[in-house]
Amino acid sequence: MIVDIFIPCFIDQIYPKAAESMVKVLEKVGCAVNYNPEQTCCGQPAFNAGYWSEAKEVSEKFIKEFQNDRYIVCPSASCAGFVKNYFPEMFHNSALHNEFKQIQKNMFEFTDFMVNILKITDIGATLKGIATYHDSCAALREYGVRREPRVLLEKVKGLELREMKDTETCCGFGGSFAVKFEPIAVGMGQEKVGHALEVGAEYLISTDMSCLMHMEGYIKKQNMNLQVMHIADVLASGWE
User: Fold this and answer.
1) pTM of the predicted protein model
2) Which residues pair with 130 in a beta bridge?
């Protein structure tokens, strides 16, 4: 199977290892991965900030970069959810109507693709330690993924997965929310990190590196012994 991959702008610029790990996992399970180097952003940051015209311009570029009728796999439920849920609002009955419908159908968040399309749950990964999983708001409420990351993590040898309190509560990132309302965002991140430490977690894992980026800032500032990991990095551990 040939799959296209979409690497969100912030992962490309700040956390490229998560993208590399996703590619390694996809290739291990038999996928041929195609990456279009012209890709940049899906348009979500501008859209969420209220710049809809600018967002549409960026999203049009996105649509034109994924014209092959094959699966598009993304290591971010936030970006995948944006394409699936908000492209219809921008492009319904437009000149790109058919193109956006095709992309909407083909767009998949990484863990959803692994579990529900490829039907693979055990990658052969190994990571020793105690972990807890953070449900991002986008994964839960925009994209609708909850079970799939846990199914994959439960198969990782040596990893003990513990559920923390209020796992479905926002970590405080929320894109521009963390910038506009910094004290509130920091307080929410502090609470989330506290819940992870309460269960003895050594690893804080999520499908969304944006949430982890927010919490990692607090963790590093407080010199806490807690490592954030994108789930792709976990699944690429122990066999590389």
Assistant:
1) 0.94
2) 160
